[in-house]
Model the fold of this input.
Amino acid sequence: MNVDPAKLSLSNFLAGESRDPLQAPPSFTAWMQAGAWAVELYEPELLASADARTSIRYDGKSQSVINLCSYNYLGLANHPDVIAAAHEALNTHGLGACGSPMLSGMTDLHRELESRIAKFLGREDAMLFNSGFGGALGTISGLLRKSDVAVLDNRSHLSLRDGAVLSRCRTEKFEHNDAASLDAALSHKSGRRQLVILEGIYSMDGDFGKLMELSNVAESHGASIFVDEAHSVLGCGKQGRGAAEEFGVEDRVPLIYGTFSKGFGALGGFVAGSKETLQYLRFYAHPYVYSCALPPVVIAGLLKALEIAIRDGAALRKVLWENADYFHEKLGELGIDTGMSTTYVMPLVIGDRERMYRLGHELRRRGLWVAPVDYPAVPQNRICFRACVTAKHTRADLDEALNILADTLTPAVQETAHVS
Ligand SMILES: Cc1ncc(COP(=O)(O)O)c(C=O)c1O
Done:
């Protein structure tokens, strides 16, 4: 390929170039080599827990960083009681579940977590998945059929889109959070079973799904609603039940899905709803039926995390949101574009790939850890860093992070404004 490597993206290497599908496209390997300095920012090695301050490997050495990269929103990943509970389960239940939940991987701890999640969310039943991605993919593909329609926001997470692809249903897309566009999308295939797939907080843009407005539109077409609460469960709503609780639409959302990898600080996914729907799904969600259950040690940690979230959640959420609001306000004063974000997930928009990677190195050198987000995960002109603020960050952590951003991003943003 005789194209400037800086103009290429992951979307350029999907065609099979060689006769052997096990061989990576040579053009991809060459592109990776040319951009090795940028690729170094990916798959960072965390050398300690995902706390507000931690250490990562950078330039071959341990580097202390302020962590705006982990989804440990309430700080439960490294809560001492969670760690103690996991230790205890390691002694009683060993390391792995050693089987799928359907045949052999279900323990008393799994059953307990199912019932406590169901009770927490006010649903009849809940089921657990060994990954959030598998949970979303398994739920969508387990329930939708060929003649159905998945109606997806154009910023939907890939796990939801892949679920629709796997189910071989028809898909319709609507403009992000746009009620008129959803209305038009639902009109295309009226007469079919349609499922509107929304998110509580969008993972790249950090804005809330407009659940009330979009539910109204879905209901006017007789369509059902599914809400992915991956980033919103425990972080939103008075009781921490997520964005559906926050916006008062829980009774209109029959099926709630979330992950344990973010607010809960662990791993896995869950879906909660009616007994009948979940009984059906237990037999048709492939990532549930054909994949090993979560390790009991993780389940025990999750049981404790849920207990703490129910007990201390309101206080933790207060700090989380105060931190998020403070960080938003100060980023605004620095002239940093955070797009549509109104939550603790925020893009720091750079808009130029080369500049983003150069700044990414500078930030790590100076001890600030944020995630690079490149096209096609976001549009070309929205290439950004993603920052996640947690309840564990102190004002000193946030102020230090802001000082680093003021020294690095603010001049870069001004440079862009000057050039354009
Ligand atoms: C909206 C959304 N759904 C699903 C997932 C998948 O969750 P997990 O990382 O727990 O597999 C993510 C992960 O980032 C997400 O942001």
